[in-house]
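Troubleshooting log. The previous run stalled partway through. Resubmitting the same two chains, unchanged.
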Amino acid sequence: MPTGLDLDSLAEELTPVKPLNAAYAMAGMAVLTLAGGIFVVVTLGFRNHFLDATAADPMFLIRSGLLLVLGTASLSAATSMARPAVGTSRTGWRWTTAAALIVPVAAAIAALVGNTPVAERLHPRDGMECLTYSIGIGLVLSAVLTLWLRRGAPTSPERAGTVIGLAAGSLGTLAYSLHCPYNDLVYIGLWYTLAIAATTLVGRLFVPHLIRW
Amino acid sequence: MALAQKGDKAAYRSLLGECETWLRRYYARKIGPHILEDLVQDTLISLHRKRASYDPSRAFLPWLAAIARYRWIDHLRKAYRNKEVELNEELAADPSDPAVAAKIGLERLMGLIPEKQALAIKLVKIQGLTIAEASEKTGQSQSLVKVNIHRGMKRMAAAIEEE
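Second attempt completed without errors. Output:
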């Protein structure tokens, strides 16, 4: 029993398409993250004494590494979702997120047991700057990634939205961290987590409507 | 499909014909027959629109099955409960490669959710029973049938690419 669809006409409408290339999307996001980092450095400057010993501060290296791994893992999952296939497993981003969540948990413990009052460790004015830049860059990255993913066929738009927000937030925060002068775990655990959580929430709430097909 | 992505219309027409046959078998007994043709048609249109999402370095069938599962769940979400449906017993799952068919089939997807949820979905969304009829048949309360359908659909939607 044939369908009402005219397959001959459908075939006649065929135009060549370029298969979606996840590597190109990831490279594009890397370039945008770099542009975000340059924007931060140009407008705010490098973190204090960037070129001397503080550049090698363990906390700076650890947070940069974590943000890079989290951003890459979630970006890899997001781009992979454009090209669905039964039998595909994408759990890497979940494990990376779990590892990154150690930071806010450790920060909460450090805030509770530390000798310095928490209020002195939060620096709200700088924290707001951190949120503004990280979320702002993250939203630009989210928009570009969403536009790219609209060409694909993500079978779980909600999960794709979450992962897009997570990737964009991590990379946006990574760009801002080039300026961020603080190495305090409590500061990083609060503001960085809030920035990434905000873009992830935005991704989860708004992106699914845009990529559903 | 790789040829179709390059614009080969003859290869694409042949592929569409094969896919139409495959999809009709794939959806057999997993959707009311009055919906079957609509679903096959929608899936073929999705295949056409989303052809750039096929990765030519990978197998074609898992990609087609992911598109097909997505469209199937989308159709199940719509209400058909008042329509009379009869399952077409002449159609059977694709026997050409039982191992592959088992891995990517809709039965496999329904197997990923708890039995009670799968039963509620089967009775209401596929066979077209009302909530009250399904409640009577399963012994579940009407609200539980609704909850089971909702949870089952949500779980299946999240598991489209799982084997």
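Takeaways: The longest helix of chain A spans residues 185-211. Chain A has one domain: 19-84+91-211.
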